[in-house]
Amino acid sequence: MEDPESEGAAPPPGLSSLLPSREFLRSRKGQLLLAESVLSFIIFICYIASLAASFMMAPLLEFLLALFLFFAYASKLNEKFKGVHWPLADFLRCVTAAIIYFAISIAAVSKYSDGASKAAGVFGFAATIVFAFDFYITFNDLVTFLKQGSSDSPEGRKTE
């Protein structure tokens, strides 16, 4: 028979400690980072299989950056390392990724005629939308953060 006290106990640390929490996976940021990682990996595979293999570096870098931020936010590194302004870094990553994906998707769809290039272009347009939505959400978070910080400014003190 099992010990009734051991049923509520946490599982022993192991591989499950590397997995993100369910709360983060259900959050909007977790889902966006997961979607960005998956789309970037699919686009990377499509470019490898296509004639447009010269475009494969951008999706690979975006995949690695999205994966890094996914695990950084999931393990709460953003709360431990206060020296990095995480929302600004995430905003810049999303803006550049949206622009780069849009540009290489247009080039892949218009210049190359093989199916893998066309698929990479279509997935690239989808990734552009996901990254644009992410930088819109992150921009709103940045504006909220900056408005909170502006109450400490000299102009805010003069009106009081």
From TrEMBL:
<dbReference type="InterPro" id="IPR008253">
    <property type="entry name" value="Marvel"/>
</dbReference>
<dbReference type="InterPro" id="IPR050578">
    <property type="entry name" value="MARVEL-CKLF_proteins"/>
</dbReference>
<feature type="transmembrane region" description="Helical">
    <location>
        <begin position="86"/>
        <end position="108"/>
    </location>
</feature>
<feature type="transmembrane region" description="Helical">
    <location>
        <begin position="120"/>
        <end position="139"/>
    </location>
</feature>
<feature type="transmembrane region" description="Helical">
    <location>
        <begin position="32"/>
        <end position="50"/>
    </location>
</feature>
<keyword id="KW-0812">Transmembrane</keyword>
<protein>
    <submittedName>
        <fullName>CKLF3 protein</fullName>
    </submittedName>
</protein>
<dbReference type="GO" id="GO:0016020">
    <property type="term" value="C:membrane"/>
</dbReference>
<keyword id="KW-0472">Membrane</keyword>
<dbReference type="Pfam" id="PF01284">
    <property type="entry name" value="MARVEL"/>
</dbReference>
<feature type="transmembrane region" description="Helical">
    <location>
        <begin position="56"/>
        <end position="74"/>
    </location>
</feature>
<keyword id="KW-1133">Transmembrane helix</keyword>
<feature type="domain" description="MARVEL">
    <location>
        <begin position="24"/>
        <end position="143"/>
    </location>
</feature>
